[in-house]
């Protein structure tokens, strides 16, 4: 298994965990924390800690996902960077051969059949 495949598996796992953490949250502040606390009342600070945990885990997973994506870019080529460009090498460039342009010709006047 090469390095890029390992990064790819890690990216998929982190993306799945990020989806799960985001789906647990409620966009209006309810989510998992409201089911434990019952809305406006808090029990032993558990609701606030659940919200903080979900918020911190979202940011952490998003940061890890971004870092894995950037590191996988290095792993695609195996860390090798192309230093030479084939387009800039003069000896390998072949120009297409085009026929020489023909001069424009005008129709010759027919002077043999002129009558006076």
Automatic annotation (TrEMBL):
Gene designation: secG
NCBIfam families in the cross-refs: secG (TIGR00810)
Membrane topology listed for this record: Multi-pass membrane protein
Family designation: Belongs to the SecG family.
Compartmental location: Cell membrane
Name of the protein: Protein-export membrane protein SecG
GO molecular function: protein-transporting ATPase activity
A GO cellular component annotation in the UniProt record: plasma membrane
Any GO BP: protein transport by the Sec complex
Source organism per UniProt: Aurantibacter aestuarii
Superkingdom classification of source: Bacteria
Primary location: membrane
UniProtKB keywords: Cell membrane, Membrane, Protein transport, Translocation, Transmembrane, Transmembrane helix, Transport
Record keyword Ubl conjugation present: no
TM regions (residue ranges): 6-24, 58-76
Compositional bias segments (type: Low complexity): 105-116
Cross-referenced Pfam families: SecG
Protein task: Involved in protein export. Participates in an early event of protein translocation.
Residue segments, region Disordered: 87-116
């Amino acid at each position: 298994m090469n390095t890029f495949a390992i990064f790819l598996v890690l990216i998929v796992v982190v993306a799945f965990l990020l989806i799960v953490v985001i789906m647990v949250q409620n966009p209006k502040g309810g989510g998992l924390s409201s089911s434990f606390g019952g809305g406006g009342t808090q029990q032993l600070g558990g609701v606030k800690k659940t919200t903080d945990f979900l918020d911190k885990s979202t940011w952490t997973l998003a940061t890890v996902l971004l870092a894995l994506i950037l590191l996988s870019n290095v792993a695609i080529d195996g860390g090798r960077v192309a230093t030479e460009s084939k387009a800039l090498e003069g000896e390998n460039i072949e120009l297409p051969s085009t026929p020489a342009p023909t001069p424009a010709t005008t129709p010759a006047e027919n002077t043999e059949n002129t009558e006076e």
